[in-house]
Design brief:
Number of helices of chain B: 6
Subunit structure (chain B): Part of the FGAM synthase complex composed of 1 PurL, 1 PurQ and 2 PurS subunits.
Number of helices of chain A: 2
Distance between the termini of chain B: 9 Å
Subcellular location (chain B): Cytoplasm
CATH class of chain B: Alpha Beta
Helix content of chain B: 25-40%
InterPro entries (chain B): Class_I_gatase-like (IPR029062), PRibForGlyAmidine_synth_PurQ (IPR010075)
Number of domains of chain A: 1
Structural class of chain B: alpha/beta
Structural class of chain A: alpha+beta
Shape of chain A: elongated
Radius of gyration of chain B: 16 Å
Distance between the termini of chain A: 6 Å
CATH architecture of chain A: 2-Layer Sandwich
Radius of gyration of chain A: 16 Å
Active site (chain B): 86 (nucleophile), 194, 196
CATH architecture of chain B: 3-Layer(aba) Sandwich
CATH superfamily of chain B: Class I glutamine amidotransferase (GATase) domain
Helix content of chain A: 25-40%
Number of domains of chain B: 1
Oligomer: heterodimer
EC number (chain B): 6.3.5.3, 3.5.1.2
Strand order of the largest sheet of chain A: 2-1-3
Strand content of chain A: 25-35%
Amino acid sequence: MKARVHVMLKSGVLDPQGEAVRHALGQLGFDGVEGVRQGKVIELDLAETDAEQARATVTEMCEKLLANTVIESYSVEIA
Amino acid sequence: MHAAVIVFPGSNCDRDLAVAFERAGAKVSMVWHKDTALPEGVDIIGVPGGFSFGDYLRCGAIAANSPICRSVVAHAEKGGYVLGICNGFQVLTETGLLPGVLLRNANLKYICKPVDLRVETADSPFTAGYDAGQVITVPIAHHDGNYYADAETLKRLHGDARVAFTYMDNPNGSVDDIAGVLSSNRRVLGMMPHPERMAEPLHGGTQGAPMFDSLVAQLTNA
């Protein structure tokens, strides 16, 4: 079973890297990019076969390690 | 006074920190990250600067979950002293021992230079060797030193005088110019600047030395 975790900075937390990307896009002539937020995608291969159990375990992984919930939010996809 | 300095793969200020403690008169043990227990009778743990585990995932995140960090957290929870400098500060926020988090510098640059810090409180064993309001010059060397905490946390930090140091000329975008914060019991300090790199005349200054002298004096009498 595969899981995919998206980790994003929470809204309200300044994202200097996203700002730099936005600025660079502007320099390349891509006008009208009003905001860029950069995050992470983490893919996991799990031995677990039960989707609900996998979701619960991956959520615990996010809380303990994969995201820092002070500044980041996360979402979990199970496939 | 017995200090333990934790060594992670990628630590690079561990020897500097050990030398600063030794110069002040402490006995120092180096402790490898895979160790699960601290040496007997440790008074203070130093979590050094560097790039533990290559800053993978988030700076400090992997180190904060290493075997020895469970002992560091247990030591702090029993009322023990912990000093985290630079990457060590990042590790301590990741363990939850200190509030907030260190983000990428606002200008996205790695910054390595001496900076002026204002000592915001002398009420801690780390800062008792300074006067509140005193300005000291200490180097910074970091890419992720942009301190962030939510408004409620900041209010608590200011209200309890837990901001230990602020930047006179904010180099990295830190909220409220914060350079270092204390735990609620004032026994855990995290700071981005490097007092251990300004601790003897050959460093070009000794304004970091009072931190180590004060810790050794207070923890030896304790």
